[in-house]
Amino acid sequence: MVTKKTRGAVALVVAAALSSLAACGGDGDTVVEENADGTTSITVATVASDSGSQAFYADSLGFFEDQGLEVTVKVVANVPDLAAAVESGDAQFALTSPTSVASASTAGINFRIVAGGAIYTVDNPGVWIMVPAGQDGITSVDDLEGKSIAVNALNTMPHLSTLATLDDAGVDVDSINSVTLDFTQVGQAFESNQVDAATVTAPFNYQIESDGIGTTMLSPYDAVNNGEDFYNTIWFGEQGFIDSNPEVVDTFRAAIAETNAWANDPANEDERKAILQEVTSLTDATMEDMQLLLFDDEVSPEMIQPLMDLMERFEVLPQPVDAASIIAGTD
Amino acid sequence: MSLTSAPTEEAVAGAPAPVAPGRAARRGPRLGVNPRGFAFALGLLVVIELLTATLVTSAYVPRPSEVGSALLSEIGEGDILSGLGDTLWAYLQGLGIAAGLGVILGAALGASNVAYQTFRVVIEFLRPLPSVALIPFSILLLGVGSTTTVAMIAYASFWPILFNTYYGVRGVHATSVETARSFGVGGLGVFFRVQIPSAATSVAAGVRISASIALILVITVEMLTRSGGLGHYIVRMQVAIRTEEMYAGIFLVGLIGYLISLVVGHLERRVVFWNVDSREDGGR
Predict the structure, then answer these.
(1) What are the structural domains of chain A?
(2) Where is this region: Disordered (chain B) (predicted)?
(3) How far does the CA of residue B95 sit from the closest CA of chain A (Å)?
(4) B52 within 8 A of B64, measured Cβ to Cβ
(5) What is the pLDDT of residue B278?
């Protein structure tokens, strides 16, 4: 027999469970209060790599503090975790690819780009197509027809830009066997001849070349915007939070701009590498060879739209996305 | 006619002295050194060293001696040990929560058929869900960090303890329960004085299984969420292309697993000492 006490306990548990679920994603419009000392505490989420390193520089060098921000930098593993961190309110801003924000937008998730991250330039693309050493039959993009190409994940920029490169060269992209392989595994796949080519980011390209396991063919990102600059990574937040906290967004942007100016200055390369090495545990030899990415502040639709167009070209998005609609303050 | 026969004098002389239940456990609970096992492991390392020095010359497969050297170096620098502390703390919290909840709920379900039938559908739905598949949801609910790691460990470790406790309580012989009742022991008394002690060996088996599952989970979740600890250390070294250090971290995980197995076996022999004789050989 179920007693009143039992019913009460069950009701309490159900109410607690419902309120926990309701808490998920429900605090996006929370207003961040100032601390007693005038600072504002926020959390940002990023990945421990060169492309995600702005927050580490800003944290180490006091650029956040200069803007009155008390920032906790959280390192997460991948894009879904970054999105979950922002959606849950665990982080106010996070770093990701513009393509992720576009995908979220088409799924009805109101993420908006608030600041710039790493950019592609023709001299500093950040991603390359490599082929295993000894592949004499593959010397140009045309030779990749019908081959197995490793990409870190399907429908990401390395994958789509590789397809665009092949398509532009007249290669039938349907003949390509796209294999999902983490960048860390490409060297081993080359050693054992499991793939015919792979998209690789730094520092793995340096290691593969220095070990004599593979050679660089070209950058697939050249095909994204006809060799013009575009954003590889950006900072985003939740629309409700951005609308409720314009001052926080402004100060965050200012801190990132200050960081970018410092990081892009060649005079600071050694110090930048030291901070990056602290975060990533890369070896001295790897750091020495590594070409550091460039960052930019001006988030314009022109620097984002080419990525949306690429996604639309390969039917990744269910409907077209206007870059202006996913940039905070321009929609 | 008696069905038993008196032991012969020779047989008694050649056999170990009879031991009362539990005596062996009290006399000999030891962490157990296994010279043969260590000799085999050492031989295996030598074989791998020879293979990696001659036949397997991949840039991604370091020699055990290089891994050992990296391990010593990393221990000296302290990086790997700070990760180890985080991992063990998360492990203990997760396993502790799983043990607490698993025993309480398993005993309640075992004692009440109504409760079991009520929760059965939900339990059978949740039980097969892999913890790692719940990580995005957990991050959404609990945020990025050690809380998610602990929650995932607790979730995965909870089920073996719950079901072992359940089956342990359900498996208590009806005669024992009836005997206790005939001596005037009430419902709660029967539960705490007959059913729970009788289920202790099953509970211990559940904890032993969950102790291994918890270690697998803590490393996996740390690797997937980069939330610190030894798992994060391993994947950080992989991404930093420091293969020797990565394998040093993996070796350390194996070593922890071995030590946990020893400690859990030792505790089991101490706590449920009456069950030790039946698994004396396998418990080491």
Answers:
(1) 40-120+229-326 (3.40.190.10), 127-223 (3.40.190.10)
(2) 1-26
(3) 22
(4) yes
(5) 54
Residue B245 forms part of a structural domain: yes
A286 and B240 in contact by Cβ < 8 A? yes
In a domain, B269, yes or no: yes
CA distances from A149 to A168, A193, A241 (A): 17, 11, 40
pLDDT value at position A190? 93
- A48 and B236 within 8 Å at the Cβ level: the answer is yes
Angle at CA A251, nearest 5°, toward A250 and A253?
65
- Asked if residue B14 belongs to a domain, the reply is no
| Structural domain contains residue B51 | no
Note whether A188 contacts B60, CB cutoff 8 Å. yes
Check residue A309 and give left, alpha or beta (phi > 0: left; psi -120 to 50: alpha): alpha
- Pair A304, A98: CB distance under 8 Å: yes
| Among candidates B59, B145, B238 on the partner chain, residue whose Cβ is nearest the Cβ of A211 | B59
CA A220, A268, A54: angle at the middle one, nearest 5? 55
For testing contact with chain B, the best of A7, A76, A181, A185 (most B CBs within 10 A):
A76
Mutation target vs B (from A82, A184, A192; most B CBs, 10 A cutoff) = A184
Residue type, position A171, single letter: V
Q: Tell me the per-residue pLDDT of A151-200, one tens digit each, with 9 for 90 and over.
A: 998 999 999 999 999 999 999 999 999 999 989 899 999 998 899 999 99
Search chain A and give the residue with CA nearest B57.
A191
Q: Could you read off the pLDDT of B174-198 as tens digits, one per residue?
A: 888 888 888 888 888 888 888 888 8
| CATH at B274 | 1.10.3720.10
ipTM (interface pTM): 0.72
Counting the structural domains of chain B, the total is 1
Helical (H) or strand (E) element with A114: strand A111-116
Asked whether the beta carbons of residue A90 and residue B60 sit closer than 8 angstroms, the reply is: no
Segments of chain B scoring below 50 in pLDDT: 1-29, 282-284
